[in-house]
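Example record used in the benchmark description.
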Amino acid sequence: MQAAIAAYPQVEIAAINGPENIVISGLREPVRAAVVALQQAGIKTKRLAVSHGFHSALMEPIVAEFEKIAAQVTYTAPQIPLVSNVTGVIATDEILTPEYWCRHLRCPVNFAAGIATLHQQGHQIFLELGPKPILTQIGRSCLPEGEIDWLPSLHLGQEDWQVLLHSLGKLYQRGAAVDWSAWDRDYSPQRLAVPTYPFQRQRYWAAPKPSAPQAPAPQPALLSLDAIESLTQQLASTHNFSLEELKLLPKLLNYLRDRQDQQGAIAALEDWFYESQWQIKPRTIKTSQQNGREACPREWLIFSDIQRHWQGSGGTAPAAGTPLPLNLSWCGLSINCAGLFPSQSC
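Model output (structure tokens):
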């Protein structure tokens, strides 16, 4: 790029953002002429919306005043390592001087070298704090694809909380120390007890076995739709049918084929339903041995319509609910039973 703009002394390199992303700055007309020359050489260009020709000789008129203002600032050494955009390496104590910030105003931005320095030190997470993920998109072109996460804090066209939480989740997955108490300070979350053992990530649901579709009943070849005509001709040639019978034969064969298809469909549907069946089983009565013989239960409570017995005998019917003595014989033993005389509402 330096050789491409050498013919335009009023044009300078303002930023080196990547191998294929370089910004030039300077007077308007020389910059336009340089852009035309670059486009003719097959180099793609894009005009940036800026108010001044930053990082060029156009900044010289304000450097002295800028240095006076910068001298009024109290500088403190950073708490974490800081990469300089002027040198592209870890900054030293020179960033605590006004002269350094004057150089920063005038010299090219060495962004690509700063990203390379961080990558050489083993950093694989790049978080951009800003309204748009512009620097993360530029940074992707500086490093080869690999195990590197480029995380934005805000993204145009997306919900702020969604972008923040997604980047926070990625940081937590990468092992970053997250101050969750500070995160929930403005809210009233509810703590939940989770299992103390690691999730095995195994499913224990019984997977239903796929049921194979019921195959239709096999159809004899003689009654197939394509064979009825040939079967009719064969029967007409081998049997002595009258003209009326020959006219009726195709209808008869079609009826037999339809009947067979219907029965096959019914047979296929029988497996789709359940059918309840009652089976008679012998009733088991517990008995005991008495004097070498089976002894049946001695006490019974029988509900029976014995009113007819009293009416037929000419006796006086007892009151409703009165227990009545009965004498039954079973297994050769005399059994004393009690019956209940029904009331008029029974």
